[in-house]
């Protein structure tokens, strides 16, 4: 055993010497320190971005990465996105080496795939990606990649995340941005020990960043977004140009003015459509009623289809085009809905947003293009309405997890303005469940279940209702309903599309074994369907804040009809747990042959100090224990 360990250690040292002799001579952090807990090590990575003019830039990229195990294999594949009209990839090369430094493979042109980056709901995009794969099955192994990308627009400058994943080490990585003398580079640094170094080479101002010896990070449960804890540099221009449209992003207002320029004159509708809309809303008593009527009309008339060509990645189709064709992407459909609301006298604003359930909010202090989606904002005297115009089923005014609780850039006539979208609290995100269970002497039972889901808690069922067939819905229920072994006799869903939408789920379940028998006793866990199962690992020392992004409240009321001849021998007492993260209560009462169990769990969202993490673990442990409490019934024997 010792001899094998010694051999492995010698091989590891030899591999390190062969693959990175310069690192061994120069770095103070030992190989073991970078390897421990890592799936891959970036040995050396260089990114150089040169601004040639207002309409031209070049990126040169080179990296050497050692893959330590199968979880690091993703780093052995290179993806280079580009746009056929506005950018070009040249000089892609790659080589792989085994643990002894012997060449495994050198990329040929035929090895590099060039595929469409078209999304599943697109008709056509000129976005493509080149893919080069050097994955190998014997560890460790090392890959080298190099490429050059030229682009004919300068809206996007590098966003640098040298340690862009957990369990990834970095020996050395550099970013260099060159801008013509007299130009100004804006940048935002985060978690960078060595700040920017600025020089000039006679024609360009040169900005350089470097990181060294970054040990692998392991993102903590309920931790902040990775951009808060990993090294980061964002860069952006003041002035830029895309396909002849010149603009500025020095301020959010400036970026909004550029979007206004792209959208100018694109909100005109045919006269017959305007007349139809006015007739549709003639009897509306409030502005909100008008909005709902127009929104419903848009949902019934259009579908989401993306066609992204050149400037079309930023500029919407004309409203008249969408009106005649009945389709468009998020930009086109939002612009179309804006035009229709304008036709009936309702003011609305096109709004850029970073959409996605887990998408981070934009860096508000750094005006730049940080958005991937467009929605519509309708200001109201009392409360703003937000419209997701790409969905044929979404409730008017609902942001939800995809666009809620983050900043959007309103495009007003005066320019861009950052505002916050709707934030949903526990009272909005409810799961209210009522279960009536008739228990028989064998421990089986028939349960009727009524569950009301609201807000973010109804989103999964909303998708299930509108995008799955009944047989797929039934299969999903079997896979996701948490209950004792069961058969579904009946199920149904109904939905209400309010500002906070809701779905009611009705189930009839045949429970094969919801109680266990032992002699004359019957044991039943009254929490039939909401047992908490997840407890995060305890850590000796928490390093980052505890972040909870979802607030919700769950209430279960379970009524159990006990079989004749049984009485209650043991009943759990009232349980209550409270912490800064939430509250939990459970109580069981008996009335004749009926047991009633009520459980309420409310969780808060927010940001909490690292030293509160132990309280979160303790709270969840208490909930798991409380949810497992049992009622004991005993059979009366004459």
Alpha-carbon Rg, integer = 30 Å
Note the main sheet. 8 strands, mixed
Kindly state the number of beta strands. Answer: 39
- Strand order in the sheet with the most strands: 5-4-9-2-1-11-14-13
The helix content, as a percent range, equals 10-25%
Strand content: 35-45%
Q: In the CATH scheme, what's the topology name of the largest domain?
A: Immunoglobulin-like
Q: What's the number of domains?
A: 3
Domain Transglutaminase-like: 278-353
InterPro entries: DUF3857, Papain-like_cys_pep_sf, Transglutaminase-like
Signal peptide: 1-25
Keywords: Signal
Description:
The structure is a single chain. By secondary structure, the protein is α+β, with helices and mostly antiparallel strands. Helices cover 20% and strands 40% of the residues. The chain contains 13 helices and 39 strands. An eight-stranded mixed beta sheet has the order 5-4-9-2-1-11-14-13, with no helix packed on it. It has an eight-stranded mixed beta sheet with strand order 28-29-27-26-33-37-36-35, covered by helices on one side. A hairpin with a 2-residue loop joins strand 24 (407-412) and strand 25. It is globular, with a radius of gyration of 30 Å. The protein starts with a helix and ends with a strand. The model is unreliable at 1-29 (pLDDT under 50). This is DUF3857 domain-containing protein. Keywords: Signal. Residues 56-217 form the DUF3857 domain.
């Amino acid at each position: 055993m010792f001899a094998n360990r010694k051999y492995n250690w010698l091989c590891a040292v030899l591999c390190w010497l062969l693959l990175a002799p310069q690192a061994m001579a120069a770095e103070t952090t030992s190989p073991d320190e970078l390897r421990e807990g890592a799936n891959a090590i970036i040995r050396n990575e260089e990114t150089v971005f040169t601004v040639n003019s207002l309409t031209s830039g070049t990126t040169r990229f080179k990296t050497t990465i050692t893959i330590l195990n199968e979880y690091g294999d993703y780093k052995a594949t290179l993806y280079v996105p580009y746009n056929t009209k506005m950018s070009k990839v040249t000089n892609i090369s790659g080589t792989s080496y085994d643990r002894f430094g012997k060449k495994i493979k050198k990329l040929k042109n035929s090895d590099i795939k060039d595929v469409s980056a078209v999304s599943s709901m697109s008709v056509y995009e000129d976005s493509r990606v080149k893919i080069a794969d050097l994955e190998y099955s014997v560890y460790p192994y090392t890959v080298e990649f190099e490429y050059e990308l030229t682009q004919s627009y300068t809206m996007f400058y590098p966003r640098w995340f040298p340690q862009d994943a957990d369990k990834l080490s970095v020996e050395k990585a550099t970013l260099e941005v060159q801008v013509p003398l007299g130009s100004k580079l804006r940048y935002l640094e985060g978690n960078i020990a060595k700040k920017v170094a600025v020089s000039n080479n006679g024609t360009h101002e040169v900005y350089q960043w470097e990181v060294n010896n970054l040990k692998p990070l392991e993102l903590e449960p309920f931790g902040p977004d990775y951009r808060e804890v990993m090294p980061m540099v964002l860069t952006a221009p003041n002035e830029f140009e895309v396909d002849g449209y010149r603009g500025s992003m020095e301020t959010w207002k400036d970026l909004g003015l550029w979007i206004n320029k792209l959208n100018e004159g694109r909100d005109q509708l045919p006269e017959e459509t305007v007349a139809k809309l006015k007739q549709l809303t003639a009897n509306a008593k409030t502005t909100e009623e008008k909005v709902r009527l127009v929104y419903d009309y848009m949902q019934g008339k259009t579908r989401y289809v993306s066609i992204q060509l050149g400037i079309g990645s930023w500029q919407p189709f004309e409203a008249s085009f969408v009106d005649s064709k009945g389709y468009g992407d998020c930009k086109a459909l939002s612009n179309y809905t804006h035009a229709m609301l304008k036709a009936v006298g309702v003011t609305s604003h096109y709004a850029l947003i970073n959409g996605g359930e887990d998408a981070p909010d934009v860096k508000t202090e750094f005006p730049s293009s940080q958005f991937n989606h467009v929605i519509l904002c309708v200001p109201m005297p009392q409360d703003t309405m937000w419209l997701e115009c790409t969905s044929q089923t979404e409730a008017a005014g609902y942001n939800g997890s995809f666009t809620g609780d983050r900043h959007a850039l309103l495009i007003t006539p005066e320019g861009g303005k950052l505002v916050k979208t709707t934030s949903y609290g526990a009272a909005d995100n409810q799961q209210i469940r009522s279960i009536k269970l008739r228990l028989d002497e064998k421990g089986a039972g028939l349960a009727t279940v009524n569950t009301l889901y609201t807000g973010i808690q109804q989103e999964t069922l909303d998708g299930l209702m509108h995008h799955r067939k009944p047989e797929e819905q039934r299969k999903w229920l079997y896979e996701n309903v948490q209950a004792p072994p069961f058969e579904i006799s009946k199920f149904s869903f109904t939905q209400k599309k309010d500002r906070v939408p809701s779905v009611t789920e009705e189930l009839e379940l045949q429970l094969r074994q919801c109680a266990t028998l032992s002699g004359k006793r019957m044991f039943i866990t009254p929490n039939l369907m909401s047992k908490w199962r997840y407890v995060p690992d305890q850590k000796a020392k928490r390093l980052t804040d505890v972040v909870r992004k979802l607030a919700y409240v769950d209430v279960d009321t379970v009524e159990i009809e006990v079989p004749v001849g049984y009485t209650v021998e043991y009943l759990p007492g009232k349980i209550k747990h409270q912490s800064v993260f939430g509250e939990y209560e459970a109580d069981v009462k008996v009335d004749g042959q009926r047991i009633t169990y009520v459980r309420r769990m409310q969780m808060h969202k927010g940001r909490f100090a690292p030293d509160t993490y132990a309280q979160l673990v303790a709270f969840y442990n208490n909930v798991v224990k409380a949810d497992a409490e049992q009622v004991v019934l005993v059979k009366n024997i004459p």
